[in-house]
Amino acid sequence: MFDLTGQVAVITGSSRGIGRATAECMARAGAKVVVSSRKPAACQAVADAITVNGGEAMVVPCNVSEKDQLQNLIDQTVARFGRLDILVCNAAVNPYFGPMAKMPDEAYDKIMHSNVRSNFWLCNMAAPHMVASGGGSIIIVSSIGGRQGSPTLAVYGMSKAADSSLAMSLAVEWGADGIRANCIAPGLIKTDFSKALWQNEKLLQHVEQGTPARRMGEPADIGGVAVFLASRAAAYVTGQTLIVDGGITIREPS
């Protein structure tokens, strides 16, 4: 049910963190993986690690804010493998931390462009190739921030809420062609994005005590859910946002 053998997966922002873990998990499940981020050397290190462990991977560097680079990512994938079955939109940015009232327009535009419009572009580029392959799975990495208010990450949260809405509409628009579209909404995951938190022992302890699972998430926790959503096990799951947060959002505030 979780076998991805013969399928081709494109994963943006996959040189580190959640993206890298997703690429590695999908490769272990049998998928041919396209590793992509802005830095070719970092991508190559991931692809090499996958190959050493018996998987198959190629590198296509891409800045998701550039439409022509997104098109090249899809074109290079299809040219190499002849098909596209899985798309994971993981790359995202957050250049601003603070109240909305003081947020520069440039920061707002960058967040919405990279986190929403780029995903909109890429999904529409990928979908016709999935149809040609008999269907596929689109997975967008959202965030629990898309379901919460924040005094410091409001626009980032807005962008992630928009991604959930995008997945719902993609599911409706492409469902008859065999394409499923879903979001994963991670909680606090041990990545560079949250480094300031987990490198502070006191803050980390506070978070772990307030999380029912009693730990921060690891990137592979999200990679495993991505494999599920891409696989036959999730054949009847579409238009959904799966919260993967160790239970932190269901706990009563202290």
Supply the key terms:
8 helices, globular, 45% helix, seven-stranded parallel β-sheet, single chain, 254 residues, Rossmann fold, alpha/beta
Describe this structure in words.
With 254 residues, the protein is of the alpha/beta class. It has a single domain, classed as 3-Layer(aba) Sandwich (Rossmann fold). The chain is 45% helix and 14% strand. Strand 1 (8-12), helix 1 and strand 2 (32-36) form a beta-alpha-beta unit. Helix 4 (105-132) runs parallel beside helix 5. The radius of gyration is 17 Å and the shape is globular.
Quick overview of this protein structure:
The protein has 254 residues and is of the alpha/beta class. 45% of the residues lie in helices and 14% in strands.
Topology record:
Elements lengths: L7 E5 L4 H12 L3 E5 L3 H13 L3 E4 L7 H15 L4 E4 L15 H28 L3 E6 L12 H21 L4 E8 L8 H4 L2 H9 L9 H12 L10 E4 L10
Parallel strand pairs: 1-2, 1-4, 2-3, 4-5, 5-6, 6-7
